[in-house]
Automatic annotation (TrEMBL):
Pfam hit, one: DctP
Chain residues that bind substrate: Q156, R177, E214, E239
Ligand binding (Na(+)): W215
One Gene Ontology MF term: metal ion binding
Biological processes per GO annotation: transmembrane transport
PANTHER family: EXTRACYTOPLASMIC SOLUTE RECEPTOR PROTEIN (PTHR33376:SF5), PTHR33376
UniProt keyword terms in alphabetical order: Metal-binding, Signal
Coiled coil spans: none
Segment forming the signal sequence: 1-27
Organism: Psychromonas ingrahamii (strain DSM 17664 / CCUG 51855 / 37)
Protein name: TRAP dicarboxylate transporter-DctP subunit
A single Gene Ontology CC term: tripartite ATP-independent periplasmic transporter complex
């Protein structure tokens, strides 16, 4: 008997085909709703802008199939808790900075920046062409987390100080907010180092909880009002290319369809670069207005003996922390090797151009 001429058989085949098409259609149209927690408050531009732009891009590019809801730190109440919330699955994603997790896993430290390290173009080249991305995933793998660049501030200023720093003795006992490896360097030089969320910085400085703090650069700093209390504004050494990060729960990422994974990674990369552009423009604008709008600000550079002491302490500390930590040594050695290679081009291109064309 020809089974295709059997009415009941044809109906059964049609039902199977229809069920398959319906299942495929439902899979294609499924909407994934994610939650993202930030370390930043809801008005801290451009840091908070990056995840919002990323979420908007994801929704548009996915035609609404992936929706990302964003909770700023004022909602989830744990600015420095986002790592654990992503790791534990309470949030699918976060936007923060890798050096905040040095107490949880020292291997995450270098992926934000290192004192006297790479500039922003050098660091981006290391991430995407020099093996940095692979090392970052290796560092985060034990936590079942993926990490992606989340936006760069460029070279950050060295901080706001109530009093001028003339000698090393002026650092001894100074209470300062400074995160990352730079905090370790300052602590070695006698500074009482702490890390305080952005929303508490001004009041901590005002009430004397802090004698000094570093934040970002003119574009973000002057809006915080630090100059009203601490007018000595020092140029940078500690964060030459501060890269923020997106943290992603690895299991949640793996459950996304492949096209949504690509869309998410593309949106993160674009929003990261856009944050760098915005922050650069903000600082350029703020600096151009500083003399007239904020005449009390005294822009300074640290004295050479202080800088020399910082460099010495930095080298000694790197030797100490990498001695018994092979992965951290691998990461820092990779950064230093790429920095040496890239710096030759930076000097030939940018430095010589600037040196020869200063007005």
């Amino acid at each position: 008997m020809n089974i295709l001429k059997c009415k009941s058989t044809k109906l059964a085949i049609a039902s199977v085909l229809l069920a398959g098409l319906t299942a495929t259609s439902f899979a294609a149209e499924r909407v994934y709703t994610w939650k993202l927690a930030t370390t930043w408050g809801p008005t801290l531009s451009p840091f908070i802008d990056a995840p919002h732009q990323m979420a908007k891009l994801v929704e548009e590019m996915s035609d609404g199939r992936l929706i990302i809801r964003i909770d700023a730190s004022n909602k989830h109440k744990a600015a420095f808790g986002v790592f654990d919330m992503v790791k534990g699955g309470q949030y699918d994603m976060a936007h923060s900075a890798s050096y905040y997790w040095k107490g949880k896993d020292i291997n995450t430290l270098p992926f934000t920046t290192m004192p006297f390290g790479m500039t922003t173009p050098e660091q981006y080249a290391w991430f995407y062409e020099g093996g940095g991305m692979e090392l970052m995933q290796k560092a985060y793998a034990p936590h079942n987390i993926l990490s992606f660049p989340g936006g760069n501030t460029g070279n950050q200023m060295g901080g706001w100080f109530r009093k001028e720093i003339k000698t090393l003795d002026d650092l001894d006992g100074l209470k300062m907010r400074i995160p990352g490896f730079a905090g370790e360097v300052m602590a070695k030089l006698g500074v009482a180092v702490t890390n305080i969320p952005s929303g508490e910085l001004y009041t901590s400085l005002e009430r004397g909880v802090l004698d000094a703090l570093e934040w970002v650069g003119p574009g973000m700093d002057v809006n915080m009002g630090f100059h009203k209390i601490a007018p000595f504004y020092y140029t940078g050494w500690h964060e030459p290319a501060t890269e923020l990060q997106y943290l992603v729960n690895e299991k949640k990422f793996d459950r996304l369809p492949k096209d949504l994974q690509v869309i998410l990674k593309t949106a993160m990369k674009l929003s990261a670069y856009d944050m760098y552009i915005k922050n650069y423009a903000m600082s350029a604008e703020a600096l151009s207005e500083m003399d007239t709008k904020y005449p009390n600000i005294k822009v300074m550079t640290f004295p050479k003996p202080v800088m020399d002491a910082m460099k010495k302490a930095n080298s000694e500390l790197i030797a100490e922390i990498t001695k018994d930590n092979p992965l951290l040594k691998e990461v820092i050695d990779s950064q230093l090797a790429f920095q040496k290679k890239a710096r030759a081009w930076t000097i030939m291109s940018d430095y010589n151009y600037l040196k020869d064309n200063l007005e």
